[in-house]
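Tip: read the tokens left to right.
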């Protein structure tokens, strides 16, 4: 029963918005290979849902890293209307190994190119006759030790760069220093 008065009558209606399902996918670029578990949830109708791409080890997000959709009516997600897709490409790392001087010795590996979650193998130096190995360095002048950006095996002198400390956009060059052996001529 509603009573209408001469001064007017106010009538209030309250409603709750329906919730509809949404999904967030994390795919390898140009595929539907999932790199991380699909995020699923529900949100109210006409709600602006914003998601930010998470970091995935060995990959970089190549789509917009923050995406927003407006939730629409989609019963049980059957129409696929409320979907956000982030695309990722594998990171690529290049590690170069150079002997200094170039006639001082040779290296088991002079260049490595890896992508995604692959690991670097590193390089083992072998001194030529009349030379000995003197360490791994970050500069050609052999003044900055490379031990801060990788591991060094004392038994084999193998240097293996730590991928997390490398640049994926610039060259990563490591120098194996060889010095001439000296002897006493007397």
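Filled-in amino acids:
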């Amino acid at each position: 029963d509603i009573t209408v008065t001469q001064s007017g009558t106010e009538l209030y209606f309250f409603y709750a918005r329906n919730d509809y399902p949404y999904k967030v996918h994390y795919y390898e670029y140009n595929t539907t290979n999932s790199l991380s578990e699909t995020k699923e949830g529900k949100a109210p109708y006409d709600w602006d849902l914003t998601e930010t791409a998470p970091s995935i080890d060995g990959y970089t997000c190549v789509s917009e890293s923050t995406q927003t959709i407006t939730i629409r009516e989609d019963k049980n997600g059957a129409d696929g209307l409320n979907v956000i897709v982030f695309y990722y490409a594998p990171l690529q790392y290049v590690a170069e190994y150079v002997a200094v001087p170039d006639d001082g010795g040779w290296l088991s590996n002079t260049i490595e190119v890896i992508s995604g979650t692959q690991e670097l193998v590193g390089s083992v130096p072998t001194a030529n006759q009349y030379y000995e190995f003197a360490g791994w360095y970050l500069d050609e002048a052999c003044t900055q030790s490379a031990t801060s950006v990788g591991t060094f095996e004392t038994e084999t002198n193998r240097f293996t760069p730590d991928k997390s400390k490398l640049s994926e956009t610039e060259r990563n060059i490591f120098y194996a220093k060889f010095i001439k052996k000296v002897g006493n001529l007397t």
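The chain has a mean pLDDT of 92. Residues 149 and 173 are 11 Å apart (CA to CA).
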